[in-house]
Each structure stands twice: as structure tokens, then as C-alpha cells.
Write a structure and sequence with these properties.
three-stranded mixed sheet, 34% helix, HIT family, subunit A, globular, ten-stranded antiparallel sheet, alpha+beta
């Protein structure tokens, strides 16, 4: 059944067919997608929103992935066509991408969409592709993890996509923006709202029916974030949806890849490496002890560490409010 305002595209029908074929023909995918039925979850409620925890031990490969340059050089790129398992099939998206199912899923429908060339994770050139993918996949949220913001393959550009509405932010964002948001920019095409610390994660929320207007705003914000002097691409996660002929885009500016708890030893360790899904309120935990023991205070502390700091966020908002 489609959500109100959604119509499944022909491309999305073909993606669903690929999912079903791979879940039947690829034993690894069949086992792990079936295993989602056994995944445990629990909710931590805050005032006006919630964080959903998922105990998913198969995601240890992503959560604990070594993404330093030396480790990447020592392994074959699992997103390159010549390194994929022989059972893995793909669906072309234009000339530049191949849609694959993710064999270690978080969602009942979970895709990885790599570029057909081995180039590093860097959104600037490919931002229009994020918008077009979300337009072609209206039942999905399409997301981008920066090279130091949860991407387990920072050496090979890719997007991911998951079944819409499985991240809490998908159903909360309008209410959250109305309750805690500050309008930074609005015209006849585009609305841009900043949401601050009451939501634990700081974010920018765009709504627009214009791809060109979103590109203009993204270029401006990328320029402002560049001024922070982070090494390489400014740290960020992006979530994109397309509903009722309009894009909804959420950008999370980041300060850290992983919180200090990730590197702690003994009882103080929490194996949590926030990526787009975690920033969207669905926290994936591969260890049962973390799933059972994580608290609201832990989440406040972890999100504060990895999100952009207060001073830089206020400066970013002030720059955005200046008319271009």
C-alpha cells in the first residue's frame, strides 16, 4: 500500500523486483533480510520526539569498520563491480550508478547505490543525483554519509536508501521544525529551517519543489561549512525524500566522526558510530550490552559530541540569513 501522496515509479517497481530476486538467489542476503524479523528494538522517549534503538549484530561490519587510509588500502573495494560477490546483481540508474541491495540490512528494503567509477565520497558534484534518486524512489529515504560521517567505504562514492518512515525523523520533522525551528530563508520556491539543541541533533531542513533552488542553497551552505576548516569535505549527513512533488532535505552538520565512548575500554565503551540513520533517530547497536544499557543521558552526550557545536551553528545560521 502506498503512503498518501506517493505513487510508485516504474523504476521503483524494478528495484523491488531486484530486492525479491536477490533475497531468493543470494544466500547471504536471504539470511540477513530474514534475520530482520528477529532484530530487537526499544524506544527512548524525549519531550516531543523519540529515539529508536535496534540491536542488529550483523551491522558490526559497518559500525566498527576501519576507515583510515591505511586500512582502506589493504582491502578490495566491495563497491567496485569486479570485487562484488558473484551472486550480487544490480540495476542501472542512468549511466553512472548501479542499484544494489545491501546484504547487511537495517531496513526491510535497504539499497546501496554506488557510482560506477572508483572515486571518493564527495557530495558536491553529485548532489543533483541525490535529488533525482529520491524523486525516482518515493517510497524510500535516500541518504548520504560523508567520508568521516558513517561511510564504511569512503573511498568509493555511493548513496544508500531505506524504506521511508522507518527513521523517527521522517514522521517527526514537521512538528519538530514548527516547535523548535527557526526560519532562515523562505521564498516562493524554498523554505529553510534550522533546528537546534532541543532535538539533540542540530540540522537544516529544506522543503522545495525546485531542484535548482536546492542546489543554490546547498552551494551556499557548503561554502559556509568550508570556512570551518575541516580536513577535506565538511562533515555532514544528508537525508532526502520526495513527496507530493516536493523535496524534503535534511542536512546534519557534524563535528566528530565517532564519540569518545566508541574508543573507551571496558564498561565505558559504547560501540556506536553515528551515520545518517542514527542522526535520523534510528540507533543501530551491534552489541547486546549497548542495546540494553544505553540511556537517554548517553544519547544526549553522544549527539552533542558528533553534531556541530553551538557557536559554529549560530554563526552558520547568521550567514545563511544574509540574502545571497
Amino acid at each position: 500500500m502506498q503512503e498518501s501522496g506517493m505513487e510508485q515509479s516504474d523504476f521503483e517497481f524494478r528495484v523491488d523486483a531486484l530486492l525479491e530476486q536477490q533475497k531468493q538467489a543470494w544466500p547471504l542476503a536471504k539470511t540477513n533480510f530474514s534475520g530482520l524479523q528477529q532484530v530487537q528494538s526499544r524506544t527512548i522517549s524525549f519531550e516531543g520526539f523519540k529515539i529508536q534503538l535496534q540491536f542488529n549484530p550483523e551491522r558490526i561490519r559497518s559500525s566498527a569498520a576501519k576507515t583510515d587510509a591505511h586500512s582502506i588500502q589493504q582491502r578490495a573495494c566491495f563497491l567496485c563491480a569486479n570485487s562484488r560477490p558473484p551472486e550480487q546483481r544490480g540495476l542501472p540508474f542512468g549511466e553512472d550508478y548501479t542499484v544494489l541491495i545491501n546484504p547487511f540490512p537495517i531496513f526491510e528494503k535497504h539499497l546501496t547505490i554506488p557510482l560506477n567509477r572508483h572515486l571518493p565520497q564527495e557530495i558536491a558534484t553529485y548532489f543533483p543525483d541525490l535529488l533525482e534518486l529520491s524523486r525516482q524512489l518515493p517510497e524510500y529515504t535516500v541518504f548520504y554519509n560523508g567520508p568521516k560521517c558513517g561511510a564504511s567505504a569512503p573511498d568509493h562514492f555511493h548513496f544508500q536508501a531505506g524504506k521511508h518512515q522507518l527513521m523517527p525523523i521522517n514522521s517527526e520533522i514537521e512538528e519538530v521544525a514548527n516547535r523548535w525551528g527557526e526560519v532562515l530563508f523562505q521564498d516562493e520556491k524554498t523554505r529553510l529551517v534550522a533546528v537546534g539543541g532541543n532535538y539533540l541533533r542540530k540540522l537544516l531542513y529544506f522543503r522545495s519543489a525546485s531542484k535548482e533552488a536546492l542546489q543554490v542553497q546547498m552551494n551556499r551552505i557548503r561554502g559556509f561549512l568550508d570556512e570551518r576548516g575541516q580536513d577535506g569535505e565538511p562533515m555532514m549527513n544528508l537525508l532526502a525524500n520526495y513527496r507530493a512533488n516536493e523535496w524534503e532535505l535534511i542536512l546534519f552538520p557534524r563535528d566528530q566522526q565517532r564519540p569518545r565512548q566508541f574508543f573507551a575500554e571496558g564498561a565505558g565503551q559504547i560501540l556506536l558510530s553515528p551515520a545518517s540513520v542514527e542522526m535520523g533517530g534510528l540507533v543501530i547497536l551491534p552489541r547486546k550490552e549497548d542495546f540494553e544499557q544505553l540511556t537517554a543521558d548517553d544519547l544526549r552526550d553522544i549527539y552533542e559530541q558528533v553534531s556541530i557545536n553551538d557557536a559554529d551553528f549560530e554563526e552558520l545560521k547568521a550567514k545563511i540569513k544574509q540574502r545571497p
